Amino acid sequence: MRPIVIVPACTRDFGEHPYHAAQYKYVDAVVLGADCAPMILPSLGSVLDLETMFGLIDGIMLTGSASNVHPSYYSQEVLDPSLPQDRARDETTLPLIREAVRRGVPLMAICRGFQEMNVALGGSLHQAVQHVAGKMDHREKPELGMDEQYGDAHKVEICPGGRLERVLGVREIPVNSLHGQGVNELAPGLRVEATAEDGLVEAFSVETAPGFTLAVQWHPEWRITHNPYSMKMFGAFGDACRAYRAARRSPT
Ligand SMILES: N[C@@H](CCC(=O)NCCCC(=O)O)C(=O)O
């Protein structure tokens, strides 16, 4: 039996109706990279029965999304109202993250998911990294094709002695970059695992968490089987989910 990994949905409008939706590449990465059984979690916010859900799952994978974490969660006003938001997703993932960390449920987070983790645990974001002095523009170029948008955009330096270095075995990798927001104040208890050439935090783990946590600003799910680094990251996450499932099913 494979571990069950939930993938919280985004709110997307198709025609006149809102949907709970998750992109194929994230769900595929849970299967192809982590060898786990994915289940899409509807973004029901406070209606969600966390107790029932945590009794069934062995890991959580927080996806990227074009929408932004609402800045009121880190005491700011929305600077650019033209950018998409997803309050239902915020109201689902932020408490989910705090409870998962407390319980030691393995957590893997990508892009928006990385930003959600930082905010959920008390950190803040730059709402427009490109407007911050000394920072690069980390956004994708929409005029390019998908392979170029998700192609290598910059390098990240991997911090020595952390989880990411242990998983990857190297100190620098090339990554893609499709985000306009980024870590400003790092939440208490987070350990920086990688930084971009401009110093922006690109990966962290939760030093104080009893379970596996790895959050990255880039997109390892993109064509995951073609990227050995991504396969190692998702493989480590899957191994943590297998260990968590084994412990959950045979408590000492
Ligand atoms: N909206 C946030 C997060 C960006 C993000 O998750 N981009 C990926 C969107 C497409 C995909 O899921 O691959 C920001 O702009 O920083």
Automatic annotation (TrEMBL):
Q: Does the keyword ATP-binding apply?
A: no
GO cellular component terms listed in the entry, alphabetical order: cytosol
Task: Note the PROSITE patterns from the entry.
Answer: GATASE_TYPE_1
This protein's UniProt keywords? Hydrolase
Metabolic or biological pathway, per its Swiss-Prot or TrEMBL entry:
Amine and polyamine degradation; putrescine degradation; 4-aminobutanoate from putrescine: step 4/4
Instruction: Read off the InterPro entries from this record.
Output: Class_I_gatase-like, Peptidase_C26, PuuD-like
Is-annotated flag, keyword Isomerase?
no
The protein's annotated catalytic reaction(s) are: 4-(gamma-L-glutamylamino)butanoate + H2O = 4-aminobutanoate + L-glutamate
Q: Which GO terms describe its molecular function?
A: gamma-glutamyl-gamma-aminobutyrate hydrolase activity
For this protein, the record's Pfam families field holds: Peptidase_C26 (PF07722)
UniProt enzyme class? hydrolase
The UniProt entry's GO biological process terms, in alphabetical order, are: polyamine catabolic process
Q: Which EC number(s) does the record attach to this protein?
A: 3.5.1.94
- Recorded family membership: Belongs to the peptidase C26 family.
UniProt cross-references to PANTHER family, sorted A to Z: GLUTAMINE AMIDOTRANSFERASE PB2B2.05-RELATED
Role description: Involved in the breakdown of putrescine via hydrolysis of the gamma-glutamyl linkage of gamma-glutamyl-gamma-aminobutyrate.
Output this protein's name. Answer: gamma-glutamyl-gamma-aminobutyrate hydrolase
